[in-house]
Specification:
Growth Hormone, Chain: A, about 75% helix, 15 helices, mainly alpha, 2 domains, about 0% strand
Length: about 450
């Protein structure tokens, strides 16, 4: 993976991506604690997560549709600096001017900006690494950085709140976003803006239509949606499982969460080692490990066995998510890349809410072990479905059209397509060259 790290602009994008995730985790912990302490209600904390994650997932694709054809060197720094400004205001609100309405409104705005910036950063990274024939290498490094930030971010947020105050944690976040913006504003080699801007109106619908019309992309999104539903059933269950089923207390719960995080880091290393394998195998292997981990946890007679199950599940998590994202990136036309990444981010922010509700409901009506067993059975079912549904994934040499699906580009009845993608001559593991124009070929009304 050293070659991809030698690309200066990739290093800039990697730093922005990793720091963005770190700041997201720090801010989420600090604001969740703030809202819960000031309201004293679980409903308040629930409202915060809905405002900061679920609702922005529904809005951010529309923001991406309006920004993805502009210059990344202008848009990406601006998005990060806007986030920095929001966290300065949040720090002021948290100090002596608390208002739950203000916090929720600012959290919603930051959530939209964060998801938009993440999708556009990923699209720019695909453009940079794909042009060098190093897409999977870049994704492997980004996944490792993401996993580390995901593991240490919550602890850092809690430590900043405990050592200083919520305002200190929020101001630290503002500083991180300001640095991210400066980092990208001074970067050289970012992708150029679209030569011809398309109408923003209707682009989200067109992107959804494109995803439906490309069989491999539609199957990947469907499998991910179902998979994430089952993968997140355990989120509200584990604390009850540790406290009441294993009688392990808060330390036991913390041990399982830490084991999952450590497993995700190990999964990132597994993906980095085996990134040359077909995406289908990596997706199936990751989903299978998740299912196995849940089953082990459901049947665990002791905390030690449950921790092993959590670690196995974390490994699967660290492999499956990046393999599925890479598969979508390799299947999508370049002109649709930012929109596909935005839809992917929206899926990962919205579907977990349903999974958590299902997990909580099963636990309330049955037991934590039942909920974990359902998560395991569902994940293993997704594993089997993925093996059959993704047959032929990545084997196409001729890509789909860069324009809206189903629209004929000439009078001969043949759909307009990009130049055929061919394997790189340097033997790159799985990444394919895209020679098509960056923008979709058809204007969307």
């Amino acid at each position: 993976m050293k070659p991809v790290l030698r690309i200066p602009v990739y290093r800039r994008l990697l730093a922005a991506y990793a720091l963005n995730e770190l700041a997201f985790m720090v801010g989420t912990v600090a604001l969740a604690l703030l809202v819960y302490r000031r309201t004293g209600s679980a409903l308040g904390a629930t409202a915060f997560f809905l405002a900061s994650q679920f609702v922005p997932a529904l809005i951010s694709p529309m923001a991406v549709a309006r920004l993805d054809q502009l210059s990344p060197r202008v848009v990406l720094p601006l998005l990060h600096w806007l986030e920095a400004a929001i966290f300065v205001v949040l720090a002021w609100v948290a100090s002596d001017h608390f208002s739950v309405v203000a916090v929720l409104a600012l959290a919603f705005l930051d959530g939209v900006l964060a998801l938009t910036a993440r999708a556009l950063t990923r699209a720019a990274t695909v453009s940079v690494t794909g042009a060098a024939g190093l897409l999977r290498d870049g994704n492997a490094v980004s996944n490792a950085a993401f996993s580390l930030c995901f593991m240490f971010g919550p602890g850092l947020g809690g430590a900043l709140v405990a050592a200083g105050s919520t305002s200190l944690a929020l101001l630290a976040n503002a500083a991180i976003f300001a640095v991210c913006g400066l980092n990208l504003a001074t970067a050289r080699g970012l992708p150029e803006p679209a030569p011809e801007r398309e109408e923003a109106k209707g682009r989200v619908r067109a992107a959804l239509a494109y995803a439906r019309e490309v069989p491999q992309i539609s199957r990947l999104f469907l499998l991910q949606a179902i998979g994430v539903l089952f993968f997140t059933i355990s989120v509200p269950v584990e604390v009850v499982f540790a406290q009441h089923s294993l009688h392990a207390g808060a330390a036991g719960y913390g041990g399982m969460v830490s084991a999952w995080g450590a497993g995700a880091v190990a999964g990132a290393a597994v993906y980095a080692r085996w990134r040359g394998r077909p995406n289908r195998e990596l997706i199936v292997g990751g989903a299978g490990a998740l299912g196995l981990g849940f089953v082990v946890m459901a049947a665990a007679p002791s905390l030690a066995v449950a921790i092993v199950g959590a670690a196995v599940g974390g490994i699967g998590n660290g492999v499956e998510s990046v393999a599925a994202r890479t598969a979508i990136q390799e299947e999508a036309a370049e002109g649709w890349m930012a929109m596909m990444m935005s839809l992917y981010e929206a899926l990962f922010q919205s579907v977990p809410g349903a999974g958590m509700l299902i997990g909580g409901g099963i636990t309330a009506l049955g037991s934590p072990r039942t909920a974990l067993a359902v998560a395991g059975a569902g994940s293993l079912a997704v594993t089997v479905a993925a093996w059959f549904a993704l047959t032929g994934l990545g084997s196409r040499l001729q890509p789909h059209a860069g324009g809206a699906p189903g629209i004929q580009a000439d009078g001969a009845g043949e759909p307009q397509t990009e130049t055929a993608r061919e394997p790189q001559a340097d033997g790159h593991r799985g990444a394919l060259r895209r020679d098509a124009p960056r923008t979709p070929a058809v204007r969307h009304q």
